[in-house]
Amino acid sequence: MSKAAFIAGDWGTSRLRLYLCDAGGNVLARGEGEGASVPDCAGRFGAAVAAWDKAHGVLPAILSGMVGSTIGWREVPYLKCPAQPSAIAGAALRFQAGERGIAILPGLTCRGKTGAPDVMRGEETQILGALRLHPNLAKGRHIFCMPGTHAKWVAVTDGAVTQFQTALSGELFELLRRHSVLARDSGEVDSQNPAFMLGLDFARQKADLLHLLFSVRSRVVTGEMAKSDAASYLSGLVLGKDIATVLALFAFDSPVQLICTPALAALYGKALSAYDVKSAVIDGDRASLAGLVHAHAEIFS
Amino acid sequence: MSKAAFIAGDWGTSRLRLYLCDAGGNVLARGEGEGASVPDCAGRFGAAVAAWDKAHGVLPAILSGMVGSTIGWREVPYLKCPAQPSAIAGAALRFQAGERGIAILPGLTCRGKTGAPDVMRGEETQILGALRLHPNLAKGRHIFCMPGTHAKWVAVTDGAVTQFQTALSGELFELLRRHSVLARDSGEVDSQNPAFMLGLDFARQKADLLHLLFSVRSRVVTGEMAKSDAASYLSGLVLGKDIATVLALFAFDSPVQLICTPALAALYGKALSAYDVKSAVIDGDRASLAGLVHAHAEIFS
Question: Closest partner residue to B210 among A112, A116, A241, by Cβ?
Fold first, then answer.
């Protein structure tokens, strides 16, 4: 086994993913920990890597995500777009935590298509990684999509993040599914269910989602749709509106690069396809790790 | 005191409002009870009016709202639009509950502007009442709005409900305010707060609400907006999108008739005014009562 050289950490609001890496960025071991929104990041990080410290000595760590926010360990100011990969690594906040050298990568901010400011933390590291895993994506213009609680749609030109747009897709779906009368006992989301396609199609309506959502209930109440199809229909409706809006905001001249879990990739891939948009898939965890390894090489070497 | 003749009940999902009326529809006493979504409507109604039964004998009752739904007392089929006031009263479900004659008014259904079915239960009774309170509204075409959990926008021509559209405005606002990271510690909604106007204005964007909602967080995170202004901004955003969508779906050739509480009327009135739409206010409880009294006269006389 090669020698452990550093620790990489993808530290989001709800979860910490840890990788023990050798100097070449190969993963020697994996670990997990609590999200960055719980107090005392310093103490919890120390506890999460204590076994590795004992076995390999205190190693430097590179971290990305909400750990750099006001609710995290140390606040790292957002970097403004357009942002080059080298600038992202260059804007890392470096500090000592006892014997350990820490670097936290910055998030990005931009003025969105709508005129409001937009922000991301963690997704910029996934893009860094995706560009390392697929160097062809560092040339020309590409749209990346990171589906999830807050879906990010990101335009990258010649490797630089130029602009992005956040949609509340994942969070809105979950809120409605868990707490609303709309989607009570509404079954599981199944992209093969015709109700998913009906939702995608109904989302083409010019009416805002606010005026389309009640159809989840009214179709069931009037007997047009089975209750157990409602979650699939709601999912189609939300994803369709997300995609329809993005298509109106951004030009799509190459396949959308989906950076996420295989399950989300299947769902978004099918939804994009219904809107005649091609997509390709990059594993989200792999992209995060590749981005952290790349940034580590830039910062610590 | 004149003689009690009947009981009128506005029985929604979360609340029962009761009125003891004389033959002319004057209110002699008021009462309250649990919503129609709790089991055993028959037993709970009997308990809620027991004192009146003792004092005045068992009186007939006219009810409207979710009490006529599948989760209520007895299901009353929806009446299809266009629906005349006389047809609404005529489609009441009449039955005996022990010694008491009961009539439950039907809800309405229509094919909405978006092509999906739409439904209401209770609001049709408020419209009946509004037309009795303001007979001038029974001539020509008028748009009524009942803001709330599920806001109803209703087109009425020569007294008949022709079409309506439901927006999830109230529910979506509450879900985001209570459960989302967007609006944590976000202050109280204040229509005088400039953030309310900023939200109304930002809602003019063509982008769907799904892509505008994250600005509640991003404006705070980037320091553009105080956290304590976020609820007012979110409210403006949701109301603005509701109104902008309705303006694209319906023609507005006279003031919108807001049927609701004074607080909601102030909020929607200001929002409509920002979109250059005039409005008038009809008290929601008064409209319900007037509708029930009118229907009682049609049914029982």
Answer: A241
Number of domains in chain B: 1
| B102 beta partners | B61, B95
CATH code, domain with B81? 3.30.420.300
Exposure string of A219-252, with b = 16+ CB inside 10 Å and e = fewer, is bbbbeebeeebbbbbbbbbbbbbbbbbbeebbeb
Q: Do B210 and A150 touch (CB under 8 A)?
A: no
Give the pLDDT confidence score for residue B14 in this predicted structure.
Answer: 84
Q: Please give the pLDDT value at position A1.
A: 67
Q: Is the pLDDT of residue B39 over 90?
A: no
- Nearest residue of A to residue B75, measured between CA atoms: A221
Which range of residues forms the domain containing residue B61?
A: 4-129+288-300
Check CB contact under 8 Å for B179 and A182. no
E-assigned strand segments in A23-175: 27-34, 61-64, 79-80, 93-97, 100-104, 108-111, 117-120, 141-146, 151-157, 160-167
The reply to whether residue B114 touches residue A211, judged by beta carbons under 8 angstroms, is yes
Residue B188 domain-assigned?
no
DSSP state of B287: H
The pLDDT > 90 percentage for chain B reads 89
* Cβ–Cβ contact B246 with A under 8 A: yes
Rg (chain B; Cα; Å): 21
In percent, the amount of chain A with pLDDT more than 90 equals 89
What pTM was estimated for this model as a whole?
0.95
- Compute the CA torsion angle A159, A162, A165, A170 (nearest 10 deg): 20
* ipTM reported for the complex, 2 dp: 0.94
- Whether residue B175 lies within 8 A of chain A, CB to CB, comes out as yes
Instruction: For residue B109, give the nearest of A205, A222, A242 by CB distance.
Output: A222
Task: Please indicate whether, in this complex, the C-beta atoms of B242 and A169 are within 8 angstroms of each other.
Answer: no
A225-236 average pLDDT score: 96
Determine the average pLDDT of the residues in A190-214.
97
Task: Check whether A139 has a pLDDT greater than 80.
Answer: yes
Domain membership of residue B275 (yes or no) is no
Q: In this structure, is residue B251 part of a structural domain?
A: no
Q: Say whether A175 and B180 touch across the interface (CB within 8 A).
A: yes
Mean pLDDT of A240-268: 95
Per-residue pLDDT at B1: 67
Whether residue A118 lies within 8 A of chain B, CB to CB, comes out as yes
Residue B272 in any domain: the answer is no
User: Hey, are the CB atoms on A213 and B172 less than 8 Å from each other?
Assistant: yes
Which of A171, A180, A206 is facing B171, going by the closest CB pair? A180
The fraction of chain A above a pLDDT of 70, given in percent, is 100
Q: Which helix (H) or strand (E) segment is B34 a member of?
A: strand B27-34
Which residue, among B179, B181, B210, would best test binding to A if mutated, counting the most A CBs under 10 Å from its CB? B210
| pLDDT tens digits for range A43-100 | 999 999 999 999 999 999 999 999 999 889 999 999 999 999 889 999 999 999 999 9
